[in-house]
């Protein structure tokens, strides 16, 4: 069945994309520019290479005037496009209702302005950022889950052959969410002894809070909840007191509080003291729902407690004598658990395995009122009533008008309804005014939780897997089940081809596989199909806490998108990167620079650059900024925020038009290089057949994969249907060549996958991993098992341990692609463009470093391409080696480098190796610029009357690139603005212009650098009227040789700081914002009328307005301004000896 899904996915990827017009990017089409074209594209990147941004319209606050100003600012600074989100989180509500006619007029206006300005334009597929839902989704079209009720009955049928009236049994209604429930099946089986005990010997349940309704959490339903403990209370508990000692083997609880943990405790002295037994396994089942559901060898006591770490909103809590499967919610796709993270399913005690052949399907015997009328054989019977209900997941964080149930991810019909309700309207309304503007639609974060049913799922399952799921439904309730002879295809009567525990594992895998495949096909792939029919491309973040196969999903969209946060480990980029690489997609996007409230208005390009460089080195080549907040009222600054979330990537930022513009050009140049040609890596990691699955990384192996060994994760679909084999390597159509394949999550494999792995191993590819243990899934024949055994033996003959990664490469006569002597933590990206090789690497340390690099490139001239300046500089500190090229490279702290090897240029004589550590420049001397400075401060807003007389009261000032009021202040020496006595300067935010004059007498044999010393945060330098550019990264140093002149010189430096000091200063004064107040996750409060009407901030002491407060009046001010020391450094170029020419034979 793996082959079936793979073929379907391949057909989608080739068929759908091939039939679309020019407006849809062709997946797999890889650009291969020539060397001259590559250089031109680097110096002047095309619009496609420019960074993009998410564009958040917050809480129905939108205006055409604000949209125009926002988009014009994007175009001016070099942003290439935007994706419009409507999000409601904390910000009071404006007057543009989601999906209303006025809302679509706003979207059409944004589309038209984007087309006018040359910006690409797209929208998120629903209100909020997760995932796909709205008020048009009916409960029967929403995400669904299996629910059940249990009842024990005593059978008396068949006694003496006498006829008798059979009494009906009322079966409890399972959980009913969103007023929706449909029955699926009623099954019964001979009761387990533990189930009978649980029914007959129930505990007395009490709570730490005597007013808590313990009956509510013991009714087997999840559609109501109650809070246990006061909000601030610690360690509330539920107590279970049994009349006699009970052997408890499982415990569960369902709640809505994210940070709660649950400890199982026992008491041996009638509840006077308590002993911690185990912290229960916690899983996430939805956007706002968590659960503990754990099993263990029995714990015997009369007194048990579930102790919660804090106050908790409880929906259900139970203890049971029945031993359940390990992580039952994960195994039934209601809680995200990687297949490779499942523990052993467990070893149930004797008598706790249900025989499927004894399971009765009694569905036809229950009437519409839930009354079951059936003459049970003698004995105790457990009856399970199964049905489907909504998971209750809503799109978030959305406005009340745009909020609704998440659409069924397994139903094409349901998703079509969703698509037509909003996206279709966007297409229809924007096309007449801007026919070429709308280009993209996105599915962002998948935060909707689990789904494990859709209407007709049992029939779909039978069609795909060949056996009846209904008799195995007790597995969903966590019970163990054995094999069914009648369910095994082609086996002799009574055959038991899977072990008793293995049957449970096998069926549950099949269950998850059908779920994950349906979500890939009917949600993500169908989304792209619908968008392509409208000439649109798709962005998808192919991961999240749900039953997802990341690589399969990434293969269905045009633009896989990862995610990275400022100053955090990059754990959410690899699925998107690998999916793009293995499916031949040249652009790998990322939600970029997402940040916590601690970053706030402190964020700036220098702070962010290292995070972006790290993402580049991991394969990302398009930044989609998180986030640009739409400034619906353009008369206030800094203005709108996305609640408290950043990065504050806004046109109202002080650095937007100087450092921002420079940084965006840097990004465009680097992104252009990193999407040319194809990626180079030596290793593929196969993620296995077990589902759900995502990706593996360096430290998932023992020993860990070295950082110098680049890899891509790969799925079965690509291995079987897309990859080729040549010269002892796995190959991809775009040029990828992988001599190594590592196996993970491969204890259980399907026959098609195993056959392909044998082909790969026998072709000469080095395959690293362990022998597969079992055939994946249930219902196989004896012939299947024999084939598995034979293939597994063939594969085992070619398997290698993960003991020596370098030796594995050496087996293919290869050395590491790039390795730094003494620095095995260096990460890099390598692209090959025809005969040109491009390497990108980054010094992640804040200290300078000198690297000695060995690269697997021969006979090509090395150059350094600098995306900050556009400079292309030949590298002279290099030498040819037996295996490639050795380069000596000096990097400043947090500096990165593009190394480009071209074979169309004449080779330059390298420096002799003994010269590599010597500088090519000698310092001749320093000339301090300690003359007095005149500093002109320019500011936006109305400044209050304070003790300072630096600025007149209520004087209108301007900042940045706008003309306006200016006030000159003498700085006899350079000092930090925050140390100045004038409050107007101490709390100043914006740009100030420094000016000084000095005498200088340059000599003809020297080079001169201007060193600005310490700058916070941006400096734009002009010397003698010549603009020398913007400096925003340490060291603040630039070549001024050509700008210096004999005698008098005029130096002007425009220095920009951050908003923080101004906002801290504002906190000293009362607010004048008309009662503005934030309003929780789903706001209902209205935005003040002055803001909605695009009026200025009401008069008062404050000059700024922002929708989220990050500062207090007593917060420490941030360093600001030009602090120096400023000096001119005289340098002399030193001739260094070239390497000796190779001797002739």
TrEMBL record:
Signal peptide start-end:
1-18
Q: Which PANTHER family match?
A: GLYCOSYL HYDROLASE, HYDROLASE, FAMILY 43, PUTATIVE (AFU_ORTHOLOGUE AFUA_3G01660)-RELATED
| Keywords, sorted A to Z | Hydrolase, Signal
InterPro entries from the xrefs?
A: Beta-mannosidase-like_N2, Galactose-bd-like_sf
SUPFAM superfamilies registered for this protein in UniProt: Galactose-binding domain-like (SSF49785)
Q: Which organism is it from?
A: Neolewinella agarilytica
Classification via PROSITE patterns = PROKAR_LIPOPROTEIN (PS51257)
Q: One MF term in GO for this entry?
A: hydrolase activity, hydrolyzing O-glycosyl compounds
Q: Which NCBIfam families match?
A: rhamnoside_JR
Which residue intervals define the domain Beta-mannosidase-like galactose-binding in the entry?
992-1072
Protein name from the UniProt record: Alpha-L-rhamnosidase
- Which parts pass through the membrane? none
Pfam families the record matches: Glyco_hydro_106 (PF17132), Glyco_hydro_2_N2 (PF22666)
């Amino acid at each position: 069945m793996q082959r079936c899904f793979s073929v379907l996915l391949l057909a989608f990827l080739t068929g759908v994309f091939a039939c679309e017009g020019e407006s849809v990017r062709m997946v797999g089409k890889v650009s291969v520019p020539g060397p001259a074209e590559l250089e031109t594209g680097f110096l002047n990147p095309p619009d496609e290479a420019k960074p993009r941004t998410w564009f958040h319209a917050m809480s129905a606050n939108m205006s055409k005037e604000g949209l125009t100003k926002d988009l014009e600012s994007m175009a001016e600074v070099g942003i290439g496009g935007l994706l419009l989100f409507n999000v409601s989180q904390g910000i009071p509500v404006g007057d543009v209702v989601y999906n209303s006619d006025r809302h679509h007029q706003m979207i059409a206006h944004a589309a038209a302005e984007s087309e006018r300005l040359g910006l690409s334009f797209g929208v998120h597929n629903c209100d909020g950022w997760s995932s796909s839902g709205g008020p048009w989704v009916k409960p029967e079209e929403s995400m669904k889950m299996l629910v059940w009720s249990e009842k024990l009955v005593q059978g008396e049928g068949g006694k003496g052959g006498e006829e008798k009236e059979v009494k009906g049994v009322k079966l409890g209604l399972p959980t009913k969410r969103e007023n929706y429930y449909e029955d699926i099946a009623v099954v019964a089986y001979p009761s387990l002894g533990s189930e009978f005990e649980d029914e007959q010997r129930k505990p007395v349940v009490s709570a730490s809070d005597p007013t808590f309704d313990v009956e509510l959490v013991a009714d087997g339903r999840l559609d109501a909840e109650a809070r246990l403990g006061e909000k601030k209370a610690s360690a509330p508990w539920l107590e279970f007191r049994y009349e006699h000692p009970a052997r408890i083997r499982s415990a569960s609880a369902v709640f809505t509080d994210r940070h709660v943990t649950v400890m199982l405790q026992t008491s041996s002295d009638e509840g006077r003291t308590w002993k911690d037994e185990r912290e229960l396994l916690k899983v996430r089942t939805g956007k706002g729902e968590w659960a503990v559901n754990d099993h263990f060898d029995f714990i015997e006591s009369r007194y048990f407690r579930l102790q919660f770490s804090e106050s908790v909103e409880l929906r259900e809590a139970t203890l049971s004598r029945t031993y359940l499967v390990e992580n039952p919610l994960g195994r039934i796709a209601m809680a995200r658990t990687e297949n490779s993270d499942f523990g052993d399913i467990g070893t149930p005690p004797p008598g706790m395995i249900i025989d499927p052949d004894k399971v009765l399907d009694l569905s036809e015997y229950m009437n519409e009122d839930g009354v079951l009328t059936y003459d049970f054989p003698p004995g105790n019977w457990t009856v399970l009533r199964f049905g489907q209900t909504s998971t209750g997941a809503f799109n978030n964080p959305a406005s009340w008008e745009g909020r609704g149930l998440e659409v069924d991810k397994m139903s094409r019909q349901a998703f079509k309804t969703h698509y037509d309700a909003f996206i279709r309207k966007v297409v229809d309304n924007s096309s007449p005014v801007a026919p070429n503007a709308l280009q993209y639609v996105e599915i962002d974060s998948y935060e909707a939780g689990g789904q494990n049913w859709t209407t007709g799922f049992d029939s779909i399952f039978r069609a795909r897997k060949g056996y009846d799921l209904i008799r195995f439904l007790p597995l969903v309730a966590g019970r163990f089940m054995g094999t069914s002879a009648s369910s095994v295809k082609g086996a002799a009567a009574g055959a038991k081809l899977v072990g008793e525990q293995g049957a449970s594992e096998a069926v549950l895998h099949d269950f998850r596989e059908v779920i994950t495949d349906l979500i890939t096909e009917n949600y993500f792939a169908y989304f792209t199909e619908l968008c392509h029919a409208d000439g649109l491309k798709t962005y998808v973040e192919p991961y999240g806490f749900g039953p997802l196969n990341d690589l399969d999903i990434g293969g269905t969209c045009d633009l896989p998108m990862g995610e990275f946060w400022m100053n955090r480990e990059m754990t959410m980029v690899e699925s998107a990167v690998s999916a793009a690489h293995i499916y031949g997609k040249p652009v790998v996007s990322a939600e970029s620079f997402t940040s916590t409230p601690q970053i706030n208005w402190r964020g700036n390009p220098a702070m962010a650059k290292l995070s972006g460089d790290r993402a580049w080195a991991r394969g990302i080549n398009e930044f989609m900024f998180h986030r640009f907040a739409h400034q619906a009222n353009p008369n206030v600054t800094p203005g709108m925020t996305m609640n408290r979330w950043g990065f504050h990537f806004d046109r109202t930022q002080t650095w937007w038009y100087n450092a921002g513009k420079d940084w965006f050009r840097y990004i465009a140049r680097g992104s252009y290089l990193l999407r040319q040609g194809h990626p180079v890596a030596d290793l593929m990691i196969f993620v296995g057949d077990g589902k759900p699955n995502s990706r593996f990384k360096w430290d998932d192996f023992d020993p860990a994969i070295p950082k110098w060994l680049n890899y891509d994760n790969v799925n079965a679909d690509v291995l079987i249907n897309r990859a080729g084999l040549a010269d002892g390597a796995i190959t991809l159509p775009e040029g990828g060549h992988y001599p190594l394949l590592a196996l993970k999550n491969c204890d259980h494999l399907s026959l098609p996958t195993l056959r392909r792995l044998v082909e790969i191993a026998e072709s000469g590819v080095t395959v690293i991993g362990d022998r597969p243990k079992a055939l994946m899934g249930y219902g196989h024949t004896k012939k299947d098992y024999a084939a598995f055994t034979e293939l597994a033996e063939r594969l085992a003959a070619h398997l290698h341990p993960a003991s020596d990664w370098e030796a594995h490469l050496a087996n293919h006569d290869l050395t590491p692609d790039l390795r730094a002597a003494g620095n095995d933590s260096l990460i890099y990206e390598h692209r090959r463009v025809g005969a040109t090789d491009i390497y990108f690497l980054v010094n992640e340390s804040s200290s300078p470093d000198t690297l000695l690099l060995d690269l697997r490139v021969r006979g090509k001239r090395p150059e350094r391409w600098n995306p900050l300046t556009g400079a292309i500089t030949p590298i002279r500190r290099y030498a040819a080696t037996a295996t490639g090229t050795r380069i000596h490279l000096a990097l400043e702290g947090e500096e990165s480098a593009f190394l480009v090897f071209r074979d169309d240029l004449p080779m330059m004589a390298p420096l002799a190796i003994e010269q590599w550590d010597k500088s090519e420049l000698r310092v001749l001397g320093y000339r301090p610029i300690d003359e007095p400075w005149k500093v002109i401060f320019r500011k936006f807003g109305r400044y209050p009357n304070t003790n300072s007389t630096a600025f007149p009261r209520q004087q209108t000032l301007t900042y940045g690139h706008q003309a306006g009021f200016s006030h000159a202040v003498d700085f006899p020496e350079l000092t930090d603005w925050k140390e100045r006595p004038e409050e107007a300067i101490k709390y100043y935010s914006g740009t100030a212009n420094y000016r000084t004059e000095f005498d200088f007498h340059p000599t003809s044999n020297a080079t001169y650098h201007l060193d600005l010393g310490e700058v916070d945060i941006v400096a734009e330098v002009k010397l003698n009227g010549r603009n020398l550019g913007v400096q925003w990264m340490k060291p603040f140093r630039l070549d001024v040789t050509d700008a210096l002149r004999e005698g008098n010189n005029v130096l002007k430096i425009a220095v920009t700081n951050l908003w923080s000091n101004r906002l801290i200063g504002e906190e000293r004064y009362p607010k004048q914002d008309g009662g503005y107040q934030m309003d929780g996750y789903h706001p209902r409060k209205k935005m003040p009328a002055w803001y909605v009407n695009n009026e200025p901030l009401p008069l008062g002491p404050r000059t700024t307005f922002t929708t989220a407060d990050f500062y207090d009046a007593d917060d420490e001010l941030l360093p600001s301004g030009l602090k120096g020391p400023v000096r001119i450094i005289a340098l002399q170029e030193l001739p260094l000896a070239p390497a000796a020419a190779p001797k002739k034979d």
